[in-house]
Amino acid sequence: MTVTMGNPEPRWIKKPLLAAFFLLLSLLLAGETAASPRTYFVDPAAPDDGGNGSTQRPKKFITSGVELLSSGDTLVLKDGIYRGGRNCVGDQGTPRLYPPSGNAGKYTTIRAEHVGGAIVDGGYAQPPFASADRNGSGIHYLHLDGIHFRHGRGGVFSLKGSHNKVTNCGFEDGMPAGASDETPIAFIAGGSSYSLVEDCWVWGKGRYGFYTSSPNGGTHHIVFRRVVVRLDGSPPWVTAGLRFYNAHDNVMQNCVVLDSLVNREAAEPTAFAQGGGSSRGDADNSWLGVIALNNPQMWGYNANDVLKTETVADSIFWGNHDGVFMTIQKVKNAASSVKLSRLTIGANSGYALRHNAEYPYRAELSDSLVVAGEGGTAFREPSSVANTVVQLSAGARLGSAPPGAREWEGALSEAGLRYLPRVEPGSRFAKEGVGASVLYRIGREGTLYGEPGWDEVTAIPLWPFVNERLWARKMREYAGNGPIGKRGFALLPGETPLSDYVWGYLGEPAPPFGLEGTAGAGEVRLQWLAKEEAAGYRIRVGRAPGQYQLPVRSVKGGTGGTVRAAVGGLTPGTGYYFAVSAVDHRGRESGTAYPIGPLRPMGPIP
């Protein structure tokens, strides 16, 4: 017996409705599948451009790959050299087209298959990638990763928009040999905001290495993080390694400008600069944990047109023409200031800190270590100096120093300055609280301004820099429009040329980097990056950070790659701390870079 509840629909209604439901569902699912992000490939070695963009049948030209992209898709550039207009994207590509914007949930991505392996060459005829003023409001939520852009005209790279990320890229030579354009090698275009340039390397000829431009209201909330610049020649214009221009609320974190050689006619040559020229005044920008090293024709840092407050902290300006150099301000604001704290300034041929009392903004220095170079001068009219140690080299003068500066005589290493990135723990300088500490990464990887962790000092070692061996090799091989690339840090062999150069600049053996450890049964297995000049290594073990009570273990040296060693005879379950130093062929021992621990050995494995 069948019991029916309610008023059922006739059978002739049920079937069509059910069919319609499944048809609608299939259409929705098909739409969802079609909208899902896809990955396409380009290969300069492809026989022709007739492929569909799959990994088996890649496109031959980058512009053809870009044409396939929808919002949120990924384009992978296989290793090789990409030449000609069909491989140049944006303002001067052939055809002129731009990648589609992504969104907060899914970036549109163009990346190299292997970092540095895809080389986009403009042939000194056009920029390989350009999205400046010719693309309306710009591109947003675009991520470019691992690409080597080189040999441009009017620069090699420009990007306009918001929430963009440029990571692990190289930028080489922004203009032909005979050109004297005002263009930089690379720049974030005016009107841009909330964008990131991270773990990038810049070298060759250009007015600037990387900067933020002025048109369309300048830029704001841009982060330059771990950007390394070496200028190899420049046109006879105002020149800088890294510059914020007509900008506010931007920050540079752990950036380095070093070994630069620029045009002798260049005006205001500076490693790190802000404002100037047609700028309407810069406000609330920061330089944190930055290094200007061995730029003999350049100032380390230049503040110009300070509208509110500029902040420079935990930074190093060593071996330049001048350390910190304040220039004339057109924007009259007596309430504005440049706050300089925990700096290490030294071996500059001119002033350590130069300011003119008639400038309306203040230059305030505190908690710093200043070494006036031979024949140079420590100070010219800073507004205030507090808790700062000054050493005068042969023929150097103190200059006009207000109260708060005290002189120190004696070896810097004895007082605690063995390495530029830090003052030695427990030393006199450490106890007095002076000098820079540039040891750990500032900002979580990939974060934009204002995102969680974007400005925190992390526990991740800064040294070695990401991919420093790769980019040092490319910079060593540079034979473009400027001085030969075989100089400075790029000459050093081994796994960590940049780190060894910066840490060894004062003449002390550089410590090993990349120390890691794994606990085993009654032992800890260690590994670290080898140093070419090391005859051996010494391992220190203790039960508290910095307190190494157990006998020192010695390990023979090696060249290239990774050194491995096991430390046995340890008590299971006990936490141990480890540090490694290097010993060179002259018997000199380095300090230790980054101790690790606690690591707890296990008991015997049953």
Overview of the molecule:
This protein is mostly beta strands. It is built from six helices and 46 strands. It has a 25-stranded parallel beta sheet that branches. A twelve-stranded parallel beta sheet has the order 4-7-10-13-16-19-23-26-28-30-33-36. Helix 2 links the parallel strand 1 and strand 2 (74-77). The longest helix has 25 residues, at 11-35. The protein is globular, with a radius of gyration of 28 Å.
At a glance:
By secondary structure, this protein is mostly beta strands. Helices cover 9% and strands 34% of the residues. Strand 1, helix 2 and strand 2 form a beta-alpha-beta unit.
Note the gap between the termini.
Answer: 69 Å
DSSP summary: helix tally: 6
Biggest sheet layout: 25 strands, parallel
What is the tally of beta strands? Answer: 46
Low-confidence stretches: 1-19, 27-34
User: Which shape, going by the Cα principal axes?
Assistant: globular
Helix content: under 10%
Structural class: mainly beta
SS strand fraction: 25-35%
Q: Quick check: average pLDDT?
A: 91
Q: In terms of topology, how is this protein built?
A:
Blueprint: H1 11-35, E1 39-42, H2 62-68, E2 74-77, E3 80-83, E4 89-90, E5 108-112, E6 118-121, E7 129-131, E8 142-145, E9 148-150, E10 157-159, E11 165-167, E12 170-172, E13 186-188, E14 193-198, E15 201-204, E16 208-212, E17 219-225, E18 228-231, E19 240-244, E20 247-248, E21 251-253, E22 256-258, E23 270-274, E24 286-288, E25 291-293, E26 299-303, E27 309-318, E28 322-326, E29 337-348, E30 351-354, E31 362-366, E32 369-372, E33 377-380, E34 384-386, E35 388-392, E36 397-399, E37 405-407, H3 412-415, H4 428-432, E38 440-442, E39 457-461, H5 468-476, H6 497-503, E40 516-519, E41 524-529, E42 534-542, E43 553-556, E44 562-567, E45 576-584, E46 596-599
Parallel strand pairs: 1-2, 2-5, 3-6, 4-7, 5-8, 6-9, 7-10, 8-11, 9-12, 10-13, 11-14, 12-15, 13-16, 14-17, 15-18, 16-19, 17-20, 17-21, 18-22, 19-23, 21-24, 22-25, 23-26, 24-27, 25-27, 26-28, 27-29, 28-30, 29-31, 29-32, 30-33, 31-34, 32-35, 33-36, 35-37
Antiparallel strand pairs: 38-39, 40-41, 41-44, 42-43, 42-45, 45-46
